[in-house]
Amino acid sequence: MKFHHLFPLAIIFITVLIGITLYPYLPDILATHWGISGEVNGYSSKAFALFFMPGMSLALYFIFLFLPKIDPYQKNFAEFDQYYYLFVNIIFAFLFYIQLLTIFWDLGSRFNMIQAMSPALAILYYYAGVLLKNTHRNWFVGIRTPWTMTSDVVWKKTHEVSSSLFQIAGLLALMALFVPQLSLYLVLVPVLFNSIFIFVYSYYLYRRL
Q: Model pTM?
């Protein structure tokens, strides 16, 4: 089995192992959700908090493996599958990091959750930009608007621009580590802007062509 298949399974196994090991030392109710102000606003049972993430990750693992096999543009998918599977591994590493942050908080550590998440989000955003630059037209990965899906030229040009925008978003998210008072804006606003701009830009390209 290839490494990109083994890595997510290893992450899931380690997450379950950590949950089993720490189960006796954690309270029955754990903090599992934080609001935009950084305050805890959601709690879950210990079993749910420790084992929901690996269960969801296992379901995602099979979904990510299945998608390339059912894509009508399967040959296009094969052209960038190495970027795709690396992105999948980054997603699993990100979920594992969030699980660790949650456990550390429930063990008594206190920190700005958004600030703590910012390095992981920076990597996720930045590599999303790398992936977008290398995608070929398909139904599951990339900027799939009505206009990119009908033209290879619109797809290519839209993804070139979106690649740069998401890499910039990654760098801005990393800045949140050093400017905690602006962390929420640095993490969320660039991605929201990118989503709106790219949608409009793909339409503009289509009309122009």
A: 0.92
